[in-house]
Design goal:
alpha/beta; Ubiquitin-like (UB roll); 2 domains; 4-stranded mixed beta sheet; 6 helices; 8 strands; 40% helix
């Protein structure tokens, strides 16, 4: 930037992106000083290097803002895990399914693991049927991202939330409930009920 540039001549770009052309470094520095801007090398490997007239302090500030906004909007993928047995009873299954649905509604992926023990390892179809049943029953919230796969004593399937489900979860985390509260505050309060006349009976 400015006096740190070592090239004898540069390809100069104006503050609005207009092409000025190839000029001696001294001329480019003078033009920058005339408009109270910095001469910034934006393509040092070019021959000659490309330099642009800009307010470097403002550029750094805006870049930092954009990077912070990008980090804030970046969706972190979290994988939850739910373990089931192939001969799980109905009540436990419904409880586990409820957890899976809650994770998906929260925008998280779920790794569902069927744990086989002893002779159960010779009946992988039991785990496969259980996973397919779960897939069907949560299909409105998510889809199978990784199909059931045997891994030693376990069978694993990964379920991911639908895009709409994840978007709703993200909106809820970024303040949608607050908007509903604001709407409730703006809504006119209901008129008090009129007292009922006593009939004397």
């Amino acid at each position: 930037m400015n006096d740190q540039i070592r090239a004898r001549e540069v390809r100069l770009v104006g503050p609005e992106g207009e092409q000025v052309g190839i000029v001696p470094l001294e001329r480019a520095l003078q033009l920058a000083a005339d408009v109270d801007l910095d001469l910034v090398e934006v393509a040092p490997m070019a021959r000659p290097p490309v330099c642009k007239l800009m307010d470097f302090g403002k550029f750094k500030y805006e870049s930092a803002l954009k990077a912070r906004e990008a980090r804030r909007n970046q969706q972190q993928t979290v994988i939850k895990e739910m373990k089931l047995r192939p001969k799980i009873d109905a009540h436990d299954y419904e409880t586990k399914k409820g957890h899976v649905m809650r994770f998906l509604k929260g925008g998280d992926k779920v790794k569902v693991t069927i744990m086989f023990r002893g002779r159960e390892q010779s009946r992988p179809e039991l785990g496969y049927r259980l996973l397919r049943r779960l897939e069907t029953e949560i299909s409105d919230l998510g889809y199978v991202e990784a199909a059931p796969k045997q891994d030693g004593r376990n069978m694993i399937m990964v379920i991911a939330p639908h895009r709409a489900t994840k978007a709703a979860a993200t909106a809820a985390k970024t303040g949608a409930p607050r908007e509903r509260e604001d709407e409730a505050e703006e809504a006119p309060s209901a008129a008090p009920a009129e007292p009922v006349a006593n009939s004397g009976e």
